[in-house]
Each structure stands twice: as C-alpha cells, then as structure tokens.
Amino acid sequence: MVACLLIYKVKPHFQQILKTKTKQPLAIEAKRQIAESSCKVLQVYNQKHGLNITHYIDEYITTVETVDETIDHLEGEMSTLKKFMQKIQVELIEPQKRFTTEELFEFFHERMHYLEALNERKRQKTVRLRFNIDGVEQSIRKARQIVDMITEVDFEQLKIDIDKQLKEMSRKNRMLVFYKRQQSEANVKLNAKKPELFKELRALVSIRKETNLRIQLIKHYNELEQKLQHEIHQYEITNKSIHQLSKTYRLPSIVNYVDLKSKQTNLHNTLHIWQRKVQIAEHELELRRIESHRYPEQIFHPWKYLQNPSSLLMYQHYHSPSTRTNDQEFLPKLDTRSSARIST
Predict the structure, then answer these.
(1) 320: part of which helix (H) or strand (E)?
(2) Could you tell me which Pfam families the record lists for this protein (predicted)?
(3) Can you give the pTM of this predicted structure?
C-alpha cells in the first residue's frame, strides 16, 4: 500500500521533470561530482529510511490484522448480545423469573467500557499511522529533491557519447565485412589452385615411388657387384696358383689339373656372364634415366625381362663359337714339353 502510494506521488513529478527544458551542458568533472554526491546521498537515505519504511509497512499490516480481529470480536459480542436479549424475552414471558435493572445496567456498562477502550486503542493506532505517513511524505520530498539534482546532468552529452559509440561500432562492422570479403576471395583462389596442387602431389608420389625403385635396383646391383668381385678374387687366386705351377714346370696329377682347368673355365664363363649382366644393368639404368627425364609421370619398363634373364638365352649367348674362341684366348696355354712329359 505504501509502495503504491510512493509510486503514485512520485510519477507526476517525473513527468514534470521530463517536460522541463534542459539547461546548458555541464563539464565532465561537474557531472562526475554531481553523480558522486547524489550516489552518496542515495546510499545514506537508503540506510536511514529503508528500515523505517519496512517497519511502517509491517505496522500497517499488523493494524489491518488487529482490525480484522476486532471485527470478529464485535461479531461475537453481537451474537452474545442477541443471546442475552433472547434470554430477557424468555424471562419476561415467565412470571416466576424476574431480573433486576441493576443487572441489565451492569451488563451494558461493561460493554460500553470495553467499546471505549477499543476506540482509544484504534485512535492511538491512527495517530501512529498518521505520523508514519508524515515521515513517508517527508522522505518522498527528499527523494524529489535528489531527483531534481540528478536531472541537472546533461542528457544531450550522453546522447552525443552514444552516437560516437554507434559510429565506432558501424566502422568496426564495415572493417569486419571487408575482411570477410577478402577471406572469401582467398578461399575462392585456394579452391581454384587445388587441382594443380593435387596434380603436383600425384607427380611427387610417382617420383617418390620411382626413387624407391631405383634405390632398390642400386642395392641389387651393388650386391651383384660384390658377388662378381668375390668370384673375380677366386678366379685370381686360382689363376695365380696355375701361373706358379707353370713357372716351376711341375704339374700336379692329371686329375687335379683337369679339375683346376674345369674350375678355371667355369669361373671364366661366370665372369663373362656377370660382366654381361653388369653391362645390361648399366644399359637398363641409362634407359630408365632417359625415360624418367622424358616422361616423369609415366615410366615404361621395356627391359623387365633383363632383371631375371633366362638361363637358356645366357647359355646360347656365352657358348657360341665366337665366345668360345674369345674364352680360349684368355686361358693359359700349356707348355709342349710338359704335355709330352704327361704323355710319356
């Protein structure tokens, strides 16, 4: 109730303030001082009168409750009075029972005394409520004075500040739109370059595969070279022993000589075979290098069959008459005297 009264009394005052014309704009320091002083006054006012208003409201609520209790009590008194009147009527009808005027006077005197006490208590409560209402009105007047002080602040300056902030926000929004447009253009260019990028990646993968294949071939050729060097070493050892025997003119037995001769022939043949393999491998490597320079994305292998050559082709090639004559040129010749000695 008190809150509604405050709102009802303060609202016209706010309307009058809004209708008044704004004064000249104040400086920022003056505005800050006015705002600080008004904030301090409001805090003090809240600390001083906040509890009193709640206390007044509580007292008003208790008063309303006591009035309700009084109404209930009066209704009870009315019912008792009706019962007493009925009792009087019954006693008046019966001639045997009489009732004196003193009892009736005493009864009404008690009721009048009770009503006077009740009226006195109500009067005291109304006086207290009027005092509380005066305090609330005084606090409302102080609140109006504070509102008058606060309204002296220049609202036009606040509006100018808000306009500046809105302009700054619009500028930032334009910059954001510009950056988004640049990002979208960059994304379009990136999507256009993606096919070329994928093509380069596929070429890179093919180059890596070819590199790995060449590394494996080089390892294989190195192993073959090591085997060939080992066989050459064995051939040199055997040939050295044969040369030593030829120098001393002492030959071992026929069986050993034949075995050594067969071993020499076999080693010589295998040496030529491996030399030919090395030539073929070098030729194949050169062809692969040329093909890789010409067609880096697609490499043909026309010499695949040379990786595992057929033994029949090798035999036919290295056992032809021309190769045999060439092989005999490299073999050591026997001395005629030693052969004659063997025959004897």
Answers:
(1) none
(2) CCDC113_CCDC96_CC
(3) 0.25
